[in-house]
């Protein structure tokens, strides 16, 4: 059973509801737009992984290479069906208890819930040995290591759970332990003395959710934070000239896209979706809003996803005249107000988005105008990010704008299978299914031949480019504003961690 949001209050009491202590001069204050809406790893507990409070069985380095996490090493049988993960003998939870194989088995078993990516793996059994975890597969599955690094598989101590099985406290095994917890806005952490790794220069840190991008910028400029995520492009341009701030950036495998309900009577025709794509001036959006024309998306998977980005695909282009011609072919003609009509129906739809990523409402406004020029009346509704999956589930969604990270684990198969396999996920297509994609997703994990695997990925990309159940708008560059006194600042391209452990104070 997943932990309800109501459990947050009791979880906070389990740690403390007193105001977090002020950071020492060597503490690091992290701010971002994301709230801690749940403690459960299957819902929203990723912030604990990012702040290095919790660990997973497998970790990844910045180059996308699997490295030890709670597993010291692993082996796989010749038939690729049995994986054995030998555990680190010195791993301890923050309550002083040893990390046992049974604890990891419990975490992985729980992570096989439909809400977690591990549900996509064809696992026959997960068993505990004295000093190892054994995973047996029904068939070979090459992305297994990547899925085992996902935040939904983070391992919590038995003391983290209440009698009802819900997460009531966060007792992890990472280099930092929870010091204060005040969901949904903030929590603070302190170095764990039982940590087995390198000596930590940053002994304490805190995370604070700050909703407005302008406020986050003011806080980093005013010395009220050391690391600030989620800043808008205009603010970043200003911060680059501030001697008290250092801006870091890295292109990540995330795409800002327009989710289209292909089951909607106005949007079911692929010609309409292609027309909407042609109506978008992606280069203009990327230049004016993101300040980088190279981020204009020519296909769903960005170049930062090698093996999935296909340079041979005909790129998505901007042509309002061609868009209008496709709409006419689909039976739509302009009304007196310039908005398309088909019979008694007027082509008016609502586009949902949210301000957690500050550029999204601005991009939505640009899309609104560009689709109006093609004859489509779009109403922009800015709400909570949760509005999109809720509207997906109840069938009321027409259009949604959001940024999807296809590298949430280093093998993009996890996100692709979650979005396009079976009935599709909340952040994938709606009212649309392609047998060719389902077949390729089923075949890909067991494919050993690299050329055949590339062919299958190419088939998936080609169908998505033609059918456009998700319309790519722009690719993504992750940015971070940091205090220049901090050395070794880096951005994880897979957004798994804020990389606090390598940080050093330069003065």
Automatic annotation (TrEMBL):
GO cellular component labels: ATP-binding cassette (ABC) transporter complex; outer membrane-bounded periplasmic space
Q: Which SUPFAM superfamilies match?
A: Periplasmic binding protein-like II
Residues in Solute-binding protein family domain copies: 65-414
Q: Which InterPro entries match?
A: Peptide/Ni-bd, SBP_5, SBP_5_dom
What biological processes does GO assign it? peptide transport
Highest taxon listed in the record's lineage: Bacteria
GO molecular function per UniProt: peptide transmembrane transporter activity
Q: What is this protein called?
A: ABC transporter substrate-binding protein
Q: What is the lineage of its organism?
A: Bacteria, Pseudomonadati, Pseudomonadota, Betaproteobacteria, Burkholderiales
């Amino acid at each position: 059973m997943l932990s309800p949001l109501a459990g947050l209050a009791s979880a906070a009491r389990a740690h403390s509801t007193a105001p977090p202590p002020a950071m020492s001069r060597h503490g690091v204050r992290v701010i971002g737009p994301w709230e801690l809406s749940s403690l459960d790893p299957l819902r929203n507990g990723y912030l604990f992984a990012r702040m290095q409070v919790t660990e997973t069985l497998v970790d990844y380095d910045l180059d996308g290479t699997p490295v030890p996490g709670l597993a010291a090493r692993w082996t796989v049988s010749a038939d690729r069906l049995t994986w054995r993960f030998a555990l680190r003998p010195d791993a301890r939870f923050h309550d002083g208890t040893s990390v046992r194989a049974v604890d990891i088995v419990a975490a992985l078993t729980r992570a096989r819930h439909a809400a977690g990516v591990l549900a996509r793996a064809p696992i026959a059994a997960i068993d505990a040995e004295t000093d190892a975890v054994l995973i047996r597969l029904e068939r070979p599955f090459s992305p297994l290591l990547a899925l085992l690094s996902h935040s939904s598989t983070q391992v919590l101590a038995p003391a983290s759970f209440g009698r009802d099985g819900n997460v009531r406290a966060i007792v992890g095994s990472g280099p930092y332990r929870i010091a204060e917890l005040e969901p949904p806005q903030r929590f603070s952490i302190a170095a764990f003395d039982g940590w087995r790794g390198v000596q930590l220069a940053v002994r304490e840190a805190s995370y604070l959710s700050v909703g407005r991008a302008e406020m986050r910028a003011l806080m980093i400029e005013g010395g009220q934070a050391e690391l600030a995520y989620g800043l808008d492009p205009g603010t970043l341009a200003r911060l680059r000239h501030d001697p008290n701030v250092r801006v870091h950036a890295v292109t990540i495998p995330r795409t800002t896209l327009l989710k289209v309900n292909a089951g909607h009577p106005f949007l079911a025709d692929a010609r309409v979706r292609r027309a909407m794509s042609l109506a978008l001036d992606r280069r203009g959006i990327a230049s004016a809003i993101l300040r980088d024309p190279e981020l204009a998306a020519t296909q769903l998977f960005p170049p930062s996803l090698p093996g999935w980005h296909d340079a041979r695909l005909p790129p998505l282009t901007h042509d309002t005249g061609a868009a209008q011609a496709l709409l006419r072919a689909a039976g739509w003609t302009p009304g007196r107000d310039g908005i398309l009509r088909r019979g008694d129906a007027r082509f008016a739809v609502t586009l949902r988005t949210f301000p957690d990523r500050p550029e999204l409402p601005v991009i939505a406004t640009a899309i609104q105008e560009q689709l109006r020029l093609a004859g489509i009346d779009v109403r922009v509704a800015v709400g909570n990010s949760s509005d999109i999956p809720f509207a997906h589930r109840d069938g009321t969604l027409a259009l949604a704008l959001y940024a999807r990270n296809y590298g949430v684990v280093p093998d993009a198969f996890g996100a692709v299978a979650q979005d396009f396999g079976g009935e599709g996920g909340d952040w994938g297509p709606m009212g649309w299914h392609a047998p060719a994609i389902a077949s390729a997703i089923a075949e890909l994990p067991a494919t050993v031949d690299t050329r055949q695997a590339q062919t299958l990925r190419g088939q998936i990309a080609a169908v998505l480019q033609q059918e456009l159940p998700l319309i790519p708008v722009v690719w993504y560059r992750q940015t971070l504003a940091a205090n220049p006194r901090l050395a070794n600042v880096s951005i994880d391209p897979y957004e798994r961690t804020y990389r606090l452990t390598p940080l050093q104070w330069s003065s």
